[in-house]
Design brief:
Elements lengths: L12 E4 L13 E4 L6 H12 L7 E6 L3 H9 L6 E5 L3
Parallel strand pairs: 1-2, 3-4
Amino acid sequence: MPQTKEETKAGGTLVTIAAQREGTQDPAVRDAFFIVEANRAQLAEIARLIDDGRIRVFLQEAFPLAQARQVYARAQGGGNRGKVVLRVVS
């Protein structure tokens, strides 16, 4: 489960929204950067691809929405691997 440019296998693709040119220096690994724009049809398609197992999401941990302030502060400290999710409904 590669989560960083260093962990991506040769011939793999690393996609990020974190920072432009986050990619690897390894010529065997492709990289891509994109800007996120909310689009219902695209989000539904992404959900379908996740459900079908065609793409993977790296989840670090999920928290209740009531802890949003603490989770945000924690995320700013760095060192996270994967997404941190806020649950709106339990």
